[in-house]
Design goal:
The complex is a heterodimer of chains A (about 300) and B (about 280). Chain A is mainly α and about 300 residues long. Helix content of chain A is about 85%, strand content about 0%. Chain B is about 35% helix and about 20% strand. Classes of the chains: A mainly alpha (about 300), B alpha/beta (about 280). At the A-B interface, helix 8 and helix 9 of A face strand 6 and helix 3 of B.
């Protein structure tokens, strides 16, 4: 059993891949908690697509893809903000307009390149087996930086997520804090691109956090559980991909989805099936139910006797 | 009509006599207002939300803010809190112009502004009153935690400290927000409809707490739809419908004529008319 997990680690590229997916699983799991709590799933999807032209341009000109991605994400999130603030267009509509537009720009640029098909597949679905030591170091440094900043501004982020008007009354600049959060989100997405790819990164942001929310009503446990589920789905998915020859990005996301469905159905207390079974079991106690039913009746008798 | 709020005489027997501007001016001269607005106007795009509002709020005084929906009650409270910059005019705190939110003013938002599903405990909500100013590197100091538990005790919510905020009833949630406001140790308490959707025991508990704060010399302003509460639980009352219809001691302000001018004759229910005199 254990050898099933350790065998792939004999290869250096699999060591890198496992390290990368655990890092990405943890970082996306933590950021995802705030993304889902603030209802920013669509915004996350938008940023994942918005960084695409930036990555493509830096790829074409041979620059640093991190810089290109951040610039593209900033431009798109700023454009969304400006159009939304005009009051003429709803926020989700503005997101829809700009993220598809940015994505199309990326596709247009990359289609002029020779190695179009392979590059596009790598960017969209990730190429986790091609993660080098340098990529790993970059992911670790940027990811831990994101977590460190998130930890430093934890109180502001929690206050703004919970009660925006109160946050304003405490002098917090909502626009500035929102932009900072979107920047952290963009960085998280960028470092996840190589492992899970442009399209599937949304699942790493949303699914583990949504699963964790089903299991706890406390923030810190939710963050820990979400990070653990992110890392676990990474390990399980990557192992499956190694043994079955399935696309790694897809099998990682499928693992996360399977965990979500299992928890949704069988979570203690909240599970769709477990809660129903618990009710059934409860009705299986005739004497307890009898008591509960008879109490008002007995009281009424006592009162009127 | 545009009379400044004068501190009511205590005991708060309703004399039914509107204080002459002269006596109000004399009283005001002896005590300076903690918070005041001067010809305050707010325009949203093409619509005017507040028009030429001049009011004064004194230490140790509770003011009720009454008006129909859309009258600008929330807008006025947000201006007083420094959240919303006025289009014209000014808000002053102890004579100093308010340009941004001050820690000396605490604001309890309407219930609808809050994400109730957020996984946060009652204690952590109350701690927000302190935590935002605390060191970023360390957990909130122990004395702040103790203060939070004490404040929760004062509003009767100590035994709920570890419960998720969304699991509470509306009245209990309101009490937690009051604890958060108390922890901020502000001088001015602004409450937007603190009594809407709240059960009767909580209402009286909240009123008791507000009375205690007033005793400590705090300035309290609350918006309400409840005319009985506006009259009985406040030293001063403001009738607002974009502009100030009337302001002063509640008994003098809440007349049928003033209420009709505020709400429009048709909108007045028999119950509201029974309140006025």
């Amino acid at each position: 059993m254990l050898s099933t997990l350790t065998e792939p680690l004999a290869h250096a590229f699999m060591q890198n891949a496992f390290a990368a997916i655990v890092l990405v699983g943890v970082i996306c799991g933590v950021m995802g908690v705030f993304v889902t709590l603030r209802g920013l799933a669509f915004m996350g999807d938008a940023i994942a697509h918005a960084v695409f032209p930036g990555v493509v341009i830096s790829y074409v000109v041979g620059g640093n893809f991190l810089v290109g991605a951040i610039v593209a994400a900033s431009i798109v999130s700023l454009a969304i903000g400006v159009v939304t603030q005009s009051g003429l267009v709803r926020n989700d509509t503005a997101i829809g307009v700009f993220f598809v537009g940015a994505f199309a720009l990326g596709v247009a640029i990359i289609s002029t390149q020779q190695s179009y098909a392979r590059d596009v597949t790598n960017l969209l679905f990730g190429s986790i087996l091609g993660v080098s030591r340098d990529d790993l170091a970059l992911t670790a440094v940027v990811g831990l930086g994101v977590l460190a900043v998130l930890w430093l501004v934890r109180r502001e982020v929690v206050t703004i997520s919970f009660d925006r008007t109160y946050a304003q009354s405490r002098g917090l600049n909502l626009w500035g804090w929102d932009q900072l959060f979107l920047l952290l989100l963009a960085l998280t997405i960028v470092i996840s691109l190589q492992t899970v790819g442009n399209i599937l990164v949304l699942a790493m942001l949303v699914t583990p956090a949504a699963t964790a929310r089903l299991l706890t009503v406390r923030l810190v446990p939710m963050i820990v559980v979400s990070a653990a589920i992110g890392a676990c789905s990474g390990i399980v998915g990557l192992s499956l991909s190694y043994y079955r020859g399935v696309s790694s990005g897809a099998s990682i996301v499928l693992a996360a989805t399977a965990i979500f469905i299992a928890v949704f159905l069988f979570a203690p207390r909240t599970g769709a099936i477990t809660a129903r079974v618990a009710r059934r079991l409860h009705f299986g106690h005739p004497e307890r139910d009898q008591c509960a039913e008879d109490q008002p009746a007995a009281e009424a008798r006592g009162r009127w006797a | 009509m545009d009379v400044n709020i004068a501190p009511s005489t205590r005991p708060r027997a309703s004399t039914g006599v509107h204080p002459s501007p002269d006596s109000a001016a004399r009283f005001a001269a002896s005590r300076s207002p903690r918070l005041e607005t001067e010809h305050l106007s707010v325009h949203f795009e093409d619509r005017s939300a507040l028009d030429d509002v001049t009011l004064r709020f004194f230490p140790g005084e509770t003011t009720s803010l009454v008006g129909p929906n859309g009258a600008g009650k929330s807008t006025l409270l947000k201006c007083l809190a420094g959240i919303l910059p006025p289009t014209h005019g000014a808000v002053r705190l102890d004579g100093e112009p308010v340009r941004r939110p001050s820690p000396r003013v605490t604001y309890v938002p309407q219930r609808s502004d809050v994400d109730w599903r957020f996984p946060i405990s009652v204690l952590d909500v109350a701690l927000m009153g302190r935590a935002l100013g605390a060191s970023r590197l360390w957990p909130v100091p122990h004395r702040d935690r103790r203060a939070a538990l004490t404040a929760l005790g004062a509003v009767g919510m100590q035994s709920f400290a570890s419960v998720q905020i969304g699991a509470l009833s509306g009245g209990q949630q309101q009490r937690v927000f009051l604890a958060r406001a108390i922890l901020q140790e502000a001088d001015v308490f602004l409450l937007d409809e603190p009594f809407s959707g709240v059960d009767a025991p909580t209402q009286s508990l909240v009123l008791e707490i507000l009375a205690g704060l007033r005793q400590q010399g705090k300035t309290i302003v609350f918006a309400t739809h409840d005319l009985a509460m506006a009259q009985e639980s406040a030293d001063a009352c403001v009738l607002l419908n974009r502009r100030v219809v009337a302001s002063g001691p509640p008994a003098a302000v809440l007349t049928i004529a003033n209420l009709q001018a505020t709400f429009g004759g048709a909108a007045l229910t028999p119950g509201m008319l029974a309140m006025g005199r």
